Amino acid sequence: MMGQMAGGRRLTAAVFLVATAAPSVGVANVTVDNTEDEQGTGFPDQRKVARDSLGNLFVAYRKKDANQVYRIYVAKSDDDGSSWTVSGAPIDTVGPYTQRVPAIAVDGSDRVHVVWYGNDAANNGNEREIMYTRSLDHGATWQQTIKIVDYSGYAGESLWQEHPTIHARAENVYVVWQSQVNNVPQTRFVASTNGGQTWGSPTIVRPSSNNRSRPSIITTSDGILHVFAYGYMGSAQQILWSYYKPFGGWTAWTQIAASTSDQRHFSVAADPTIARIYAVWRENTANGPRIHAAVMTSNQWALDAAPIASGTLDQCYPSVTATSQRVLVVWTNSTNCAAPNDRPQNGEIVMSTRSFSSSRWSSPVSIAASPGEDVYPILRWQPVDYGGNADMVWIQGTKVTNTPCPDCTVRHTSIEAW
Asked: How many angstroms separate the CA atoms of 147 and 111, rounded?
């Protein structure tokens, strides 16, 4: 049953073309931890949940410490999300300085990597650096926090660091983030080839006179690196893509689905068996923000003819994951999460699926509709990596518009049979 929204508007799901079998929730919605951050699981594509080869689940988020300072925490579950253990101390060792927006990944040797941005003793206010730590013992302990790259911050307007995304493949760990260069946001890239022990020199992914914001990175089955960002192309923000040629460097930024409408807040996932990528994003339409989708095969993008779902509610903050057979998308339905603020005032989380051989999405199904509000869903990147279910985390609370939120919790569920 769909939930009743604030103001009396009822959440309804519209059928897009033809329905397929509905997914099911394998593990009940469980509280991971409390948080004062109403955007604690934002934003795509900064994944907040990962799983190692032993089946341990890890969730990265921020909350206030005993001194009421936002710090980075990681919760762990060794029973498929039925219960969670949270250390009393943050994993960061920066000290009493505000930290923001973590992302987490597990590599091929079960090292757990977390990256985020924040202040330290030398950088306060908007002067933020990209921070990193890793665990070599399945989350039992965490190494000293380091700055992946030590740059000056926003005050000098030379390099403003924020919103890092992390991706791991075998022993390789990749990080991209938004960096201010000559007052223009650009996408920076850095890599480690030894599981985060050392890091190479950072580079800008195809410098541009226009912004390249909130980037994400992923590898396809052939090992090729693909970077995404949104930025101005013509008169509107567009979802842009570049990939790395071993002997040619980063390709020129290209629109994956050219439009005159504003496109932002995207999520990408790769087919684990062939070089195929699924992308979803929020795009403004005459009926409000909608979730659109496209698929890349052989470096060619094919755009769906219509949004994943219709309806009267705003749609925002999608997250996508994929197996070799199917693709799963979740997002927030809300009475108000329209651009440019893109900040849901209330919400219910819904999901839709399709097979890799079809362009037809299933009818959206409600998977998080509480008496409060449910916002900012994030899926585990690859459900076939150490377990076939799709783990999802999100924020639940009755006052998700408040900063700080007095009753927000980080929640987890496992989606199976999709």
From this structure: 18
Q: Identify which of 276, 291, 415, 290 has the alpha carbon closest to the alpha carbon of residue 357.
A: 276
Q: Which of 56, 31, 248 is nearest to 138 (CA)?
A: 56
Q: What is the CA radius of gyration of the chain?
A: 20
What is d(CA 418, CA 25) in angstroms, rounded to the nearest whole number? 9
Give the residue from 365, 415, 403, 412 showing the smallest Cα distance to 1. 365
Q: DSSP string covering 353-391, please?
A: EEETT--PPPPPEEEE--SSEEEEEEE-S-TTTT-SSEE
Res 2: pLDDT: 31
Q: Which residues of the chain have pLDDT under 50?
A: 1-20
Q: What is the pLDDT of residue 5?
A: 35
Q: How many CB atoms lie within 10 A of CB 218?
A: 22
Q: What is the pLDDT of residue 341?
A: 82
* Distance from C-alpha of 202 to C-alpha of 52, rounded to nearest angstrom: 28
- What percent of the chain has a predicted confidence (pLDDT) above 90? 72
- Given a contact cutoff of 8 angstroms between Cβ atoms, the answer to whether 81 and 33 are in contact is no
The per-residue pLDDT for 325 is: 85
